[in-house]
């Protein structure tokens, strides 16, 4: 099976992947590598048990704001750092040591599996991922290379270094970009404000769009499988830019592929988190795709988010047990609040904790993992981040 075989399948078979599209599932072997205790606060909160303290980590906690990160990266390009096992492990661990985080997020990027497969792209400082030859035709989709296990060997190696140092109450979160968000970089050729080239391809050439999504899905699953088999304790699927879509378009052009990814990864038995920016209108549909934990951006209060998720799952799974009609919640401090001083940080942490607890008490959510409502902003003072972590642990 090659990616071009995938791309040639008719668009009507959107979500019907076979096991041959992915690596063989090695769930047993993967579970032996994991070492976080089942009592780790993040795992307890994701399952719906009472954690020993409110777990917290921050998207983009690795890199960016930390002087020790800038020092390590001084002479190393971003993508080179992602493929050096020692370096990626050290960068992953820096924020955990500094802030007493309940989770490490693997230092990598959503374009790493594309780079590993041989697609010509770079991460340009101050800009983001830039693709040499944007993918906008069926021919270009068919030429996309397949991802092989050995191309990700340094990442698997880096994960085993991280696991050696984490405490057993701290989890390692692996991640991937969801097909829509990854496709947006491939189609636009780089970061985009409005995603107009991507949307125009979706609307005017749906066959090409579905072929691209079909081609990307196995690459993303394989990237996650590699991380899971190396021992990550949880995964997050970032659909950062899905909030640019209407719910109708999301359902038709995106959801089947994100759902196929959750289906493929579920046998590994780890918590699966889903997040996108500005996705208040999509929370229900994103939850229906199958995650255990829904990341909430800062624009929607946690209790409203929980009610939206619960309503969508109730509608979609009328016969399911009550516990399968809710998810855990992750979020949702506005990253800008970290610039606003200790009093405001404390006030907002308490408000968010109370809103999440109210949703849990009312049976609308399983648990709460504290996070930002998007990533740490580059100029954030690391001490403000530490204080926010302390405040969450007191809440
Ligand atoms: O030189 C540098 O330091 C580059 C900045 C940087 C960093 C630190 C980039 C370029 N990527 C990363 C690491 C990264 N990327 C992580 C690691 C760990 C952590 O979270 O602490 C993660 C999870 C990502 C994921 C990622 N990359 C996303 C999804 C999350 C999100 O923020 O929405 C996206 C959209 C990207 C693309 C990307 N990579 C880098 C940048 C600047 C961007 C965004 C560009 C844009 O605005 O479109």
From TrEMBL:
Enzyme Commission number, as recorded: 4.1.1.37
Pathway: Porphyrin-containing compound metabolism; protoporphyrin-IX biosynthesis; coproporphyrinogen-III from 5-aminolevulinate: step 4/4
Function: Catalyzes the decarboxylation of four acetate groups of uroporphyrinogen-III to yield coproporphyrinogen-III.
Spans through the membrane: none
HAMAP family: URO_D
Main EC class the enzyme belongs to: lyase
Similarity comment: Belongs to the uroporphyrinogen decarboxylase family.
Site (Transition state stabilizer): 109
Subcellular location, record wording: Cytoplasm
Subunit comment: Homodimer.
Domain of life assignment: Bacteria
InterPro entries given in the database record: UROD/MetE-like_sf, Uroporphyrinogen_deCO2ase_HemE, Uroporphyrinogen_deCOase
Reactions it catalyzes: uroporphyrinogen III + 4 H(+) = coproporphyrinogen III + 4 CO2
Protein name as annotated: Uroporphyrinogen decarboxylase
GO MF entries: uroporphyrinogen decarboxylase activity
Domain Uroporphyrinogen decarboxylase (URO-D): 55-64, 173-189
Positions with a binding annotation for substrate: 60-64, 109, 185, 240, 374
Organism, as annotated: Corynebacterium suicordis DSM 45110
